[in-house]
Design goal:
single chain; five-stranded parallel beta sheet
Length: 142
């Protein structure tokens, strides 16, 4: 008996990149749902069982940091991987993101990051809260 396929929601307004990523992940054994806008992605996120999200930073009408924050408020246990063609993003844009990768990185980095996110055991609430508090406290000292 094969283990159940993990479902990944890919959100990207670039159709070619989205379909390429979908095919790659499906070849690696994942079930992939796709969306081309933040609103469409949020609708799928709310209505379907999702194991992880792969999110493009630049989306029409909504940046990924806003979308990720909304998703984390709804289902904080779902890991979110952010892809961007832009170099390092400011820390404030990555608050709700579990992993950040640039689009120029090899697809192997995407695959290994997803595997780590999907196999990591979620931290209990106190530890997530403490990490968040410590991170905010650290930025205040700088």
């Amino acid at each position: 008996m094969h283990p159940a396929k993990r479902t990944i929601l890919c959100i990207d307004d670039n159709w070619i990149g989205l379909i390429g990523r979908k095919r790659f992940l499906e070849q690696k054994g994942y079930r992939v749902l796709e969306a081309t806008s933040g609103d469409e992605g949020l609708e799928i996120f709310q209505s379907r069982a999702i194991d992880a999200v792969v999110l493009d930073y630049q989306l029409p009408g909504m940046h990924a940091d806003t979308l990720a924050a909304t998703m984390k408020r709804m289902k904080p246990q779902i890991p979110i991987l952010l892809l961007s063609a832009y170099g390092p993003l400011p820390e404030g844009k990555l608050v709700s993101i579990d992993v950040f990768l640039t689009k120029s990185q090899e697809t192997v980095a995407l695959l290994s990051s997803l595997r780590v996110l999907l196999t990591a055991k979620p931290k209990p609430f106190f530890y997530r809260w403490f990490d968040s508090w410590r991170g905010r406290n650290h930025t205040l000292r700088i």
